[in-house]
Amino acid sequence: MTKKQLSLLIAALFVATPALADDDPFISTGTVTAGGIATDVNSGNKDASKFEEYQDLSNGMLSNFGFVGRNSKSWVNAYGENFGRDDMYVNVRGGMYNVFKAQAYTNWIPHNFLYNGLTPFSGSGTPVLTATFPQPNPATWNPLDLGYTRKNTGGMFEWQGTSPWYFRVDGNQVKFDGTKNGSSANSTSPGGGYTDLAYPVRYQTNNAAFEGGYTTRTMTFTGSYMFSNFGNYNEAVNYNNPYFGNIVDRVYLPPPNQYQRIALNGVVRDLPWKSTFAARYTWDKTKSDVSIYDTVAGGSAGSGSYINVQPETPTFNGEEKRQTLTLGWSATPMKDLDTRAYYNWQKMNNNSTDVVFCASGAASCGGGTFENELWDYKKNNFGVDAYWRVNRGNRLGFGFDWYDIKQNRFDFDDTTTNTYWVEWKNTSIDTVSARIKYSYIHRHSDFLLGDAGADANDNDYLFRFVKAFDLANYNQNRVKATVDWAPMDSVGTAFEFIYKDNDYNKTVLGRVKDKRWEVYGNLTYGTPSSWRATLFADYEDVKYTSDHRYISSNNCNSPRPPNCFDPSTPPTSQAYNWNSIVKNNNWMIGLGVDVPVSEQLMVTGSLIYDKVDGSADMTAQENYGNPLPLNAYPNIKTVSLNLKGTYKFDKNWSLTGGYAYQKYDFSDDQFNGYTNTIPFPGVTTNASQSYLNGWNANQAYNANIFYLLATFKY
Amino acid sequence: MQLKSILAAAGMLVAFAVLVPTPALAQATGAKPVCANCHEQANNSIMLTAHGAKNDAQGSMCQSCHGDAAAHMKDPQKAMPQGPLTAKDASATDKTGVCMTCHAGNRHLVFWESGRHAKNEVACSNCHNIHGKAGRVTVAPFTTSFRDNEAEICGTCHQQIRAAIMKPSHHPIIENKIKCSDCHNPHGALTPVMLKAETVNQQCYSCHADKRGPYIFAHPAVEENCLSCHNPHGSVYPKLLNEKAPNLCQDCHDWSRHPGTVYGAAGNFTCTPAAVADPGNSACFNKAPGSYNSAVNTRLIARGCVNCHSAIHGSNAPGNRGMFLFK
């Protein structure tokens, strides 16, 4: 829907509502606001995209409107803002009571990634990126901005006129248009370097859903069908590969897919023991069919050719079917005892094409046979929980959850997770509410690679010790405590503390521990006729600990020691264990104040300060490799000041003026000292040169924002 | 674009002035409820809503929530209406029961009893404020959106989430472009953490349809759970990652050569003081701190592993280009 069509729709609504009202007066209230915004951003000649990451803060008009109206039969509620800007939003709802309701909306979200970047390619934003390499001098490159706008436009209609039966239709279209940051390896070895690419983003997703059912106070039965079609105007990005002599290489972009879902829901209330029984069954299917390309760009440094990778089938038909069934029973079997029991079942069948490349394993075909792995699973989960109100001021809760996954993943096929928790809530003192909850999780997974590799001289032997943390055995302890205290009507305080630690106790190589704790405090003051304030502070500390092994080649031939793939082998400079601790702490403090200076003038202010300190420390056996710490990983400081004054001339007119200041300081060892080529300065004789566009490298900025708005309200 | 937005704003102003010349807040159809004789502000606050539409001269809508007011009408000072919404010791279940008398058949509330809010004694009145009481003061950066932000309500209890959405990498919640209820159903759901979809991944794919696949070569951790790598509320790391690459990747992947290599500051763009002092570091030893490092490591800088393994969510590239998620 274009901007012009939206304006006409809203105007027609205003014209039409008196006609709808007949002799039933239509009452309404509305506001229209218009004004301007001016921003002054200082990021040097660098990248201020972070300032406008999700908003359109360009100089120009700001506008919004709101309208709420009804008579005894019908109603309308409409709101729109930022007309003509990249972050426009309009939402119009209305209907006739107990007959129907409808909605139309559009919501635009910009997402900006990079301003003032550089690229050696021409054609950014298209699926063909052209350059003749080498390109050693970034001063000769093309300017590059990366970002896209996401536009979600849709509507809904719900028929309620034959209650308790209802019928509903939803539909929306989501369009992405622009570019985003991507990259590609230049060769198949890390030594070949990489090249940043501007991926074209032209997606369109069309969604439609139909729902109907029977719903009363005591029971509900509904069925729905949903269809979603994702389309991408571009199958791939084709670009000149700097390593393989400028041969045209390709990166594959997200393929089109279709998704269908059927859902059946049922709820029956007022059963014995004041219980409610709920059930949901879903079936869904995701499909994506693509032609399989049979060649890849390859060759040698400076000389490219196409390698036929011999796919055994020309087409990949991707299909995944899922079913879920959930049953829940909530009951109050006796006074002051609330219970719940639930069961979940999930199954996924992967009917996608099994694809084999290079069945011969010939070196000319890529040096191996490559076959995809199709993942499917069955999951069972049941749990119970109970809350017992011991007395007026105390409530205890208990719960247990059992979750079992059987799947055909290559490393784990059977995972069972048990969760136990207890909770105590105390409200004995009228002005205080306190709650503390402890939970313990134990996960056990059957590890399938315990016999990998023939012996400790075999590269694959290392897999016996590497466990992916997403399914590895672990134990978790988690504590959450909250206290809310309102010592008087106008004052409130809140305190929240969370501690969580995960111990991956059977993991030798990989993540072995992670820990997080966070504390939050909040103080509010306010009375309806006087000034109000909120002060908050938050501190979070996160730590990931992992163990790894470095072996300099894929065999234990000299200079590597025998049995080099066994972590317990004594270390040498060619094979040793190392450990990393990645930490970040984030603290945030904020103050907000609303001050009614007079009957006409209201002033509001908000100040937030946020500081992040990140680091990574590595240690190695015998200090081999002398791993050096990363001390800015990242370090970020953000200051946001937001001041606004609203002056009411009379009951209809008001003027709002505001000033905001934002400062964003960014330091990250992955980007500090950033260069557009590696090596730097660029050279003409290095086919392994990397080409970088500046994404995320120069994000620091400070900005002043001014705005002035006039509002008419009736 | 500037002219169009000016014309649009002016057009709306004219439309209001010409087409809707109504006086301020005329009375609704039917008689004014008797409660409004004393509680005019409360009546005005619901006048334009469905609650106001269904009210009558006897104040039936008022009494359905606040309790029988017959005694209160005879002696307003001494006899207050007694209903769960006004009783001091009313439980959350009692308060919710008032609203459920009419709203239990609402499709959003189908799974209310199964949800965490019901179990944690959250009542409708904890979040819904039909009389327009002033909420907490907003503490937030400037945004171009002037409408109320749902996260302010949820953040009243979910305070650490409220802090998380203001971290450097975040979904556009604070910018008012997406809402908590786009992913969660606060009125109850059968999925843990009251997600609207059956699984975390299906919830993420409802907006990020480009990640659905299926791909020829999938990344098992992605298929398992998006939250293995991402924190949807906010992160200090780019792309809402829980940890940076290469560290995040190395927490699952270790093998000979570069997967198991330690990536420290010796691979930075510039020579750190520690690198300059290290005789084993031939690229930086005895150089000036901050000078260019001739041994920049492409597996550390910028996006780490993803510089080369860019198809991290899955790939349709043939051969080993797809299997190793290069393209």
3D structure, described in words:
The complex is a heterodimer of chains A (714) and B (327). With 714 residues, chain A is mainly β. Chain A has one helix at 3-21; strands spanning 27-42, 60-70, 74-81, 89-96, 100-119, 128-129, 142-159, 165-185, 194-215, 219-232, 236-240, 248-252, 257-271, 275-291, 295-300, 303-308, 315-334, 337-350, 356-357, 370-371, 377-391, 394-407, 412-426, 432-447, 474-488, 491-503, 510-526, 532-551, 575-596, 601-620, 635-648, 653-667, 677-678, 690-691, 701-713. Chain A is 3% helix and 62% strand. In chain A, the strands form five sheets. Chain A has a 26-stranded antiparallel barrel. In chain A, strands 6-11-12 form a three-stranded mixed sheet, with no helix packed on it. Chain A has a two-stranded antiparallel sheet with strand order 15-16. Chain A is globular. Helix content of chain B is 30%, strand content 0%. Chain B contains 15 helices and no strands. The two termini of chain B are 38 Å apart. Chains A and B meet through α1, β1, β2, β3 and β8 of A and α1, α3, α10, α12 and α15 of B.
Descriptive labels:
heterodimer; A: 714 residues; mainly beta; 26-stranded antiparallel β-barrel; three-stranded mixed β-sheet; 35 strands; 3% helix; globular; B: 327 residues; mainly alpha; 0% strand
How would you summarize the topology of this molecule?
The complex is a heterodimer of chains A (714) and B (327).
Chain A: H1 3-21, E1 27-42, E2 60-70, E3 74-81, E4 89-96, E5 100-119, E6 128-129, E7 142-159, E8 165-185, E9 194-215, E10 219-232, E11 236-240, E12 248-252, E13 257-271, E14 275-291, E15 295-300, E16 303-308, E17 315-334, E18 337-350, E19 356-357, E20 370-371, E21 377-391, E22 394-407, E23 412-426, E24 432-447, E25 474-488, E26 491-503, E27 510-526, E28 532-551, E29 575-596, E30 601-620, E31 635-648, E32 653-667, E33 677-678, E34 690-691, E35 701-713
Parallel strand pairs in A: 6-11
Antiparallel strand pairs in A: 1-2, 1-35, 2-3, 3-4, 4-5, 5-7, 7-8, 8-9, 9-10, 10-13, 11-12, 13-14, 14-17, 15-16, 17-18, 18-21, 19-20, 21-22, 22-23, 23-24, 24-25, 25-26, 26-27, 27-28, 28-29, 29-30, 30-31, 31-32, 32-35, 33-34
Chain B: H1 2-19, H2 40-46, H3 50-53, H4 60-66, H5 70-74, H6 92-103, H7 116-119, H8 124-127, H9 150-157, H10 159-164, H11 200-205, H12 220-224, H13 247-250, H14 273-276, H15 319-323
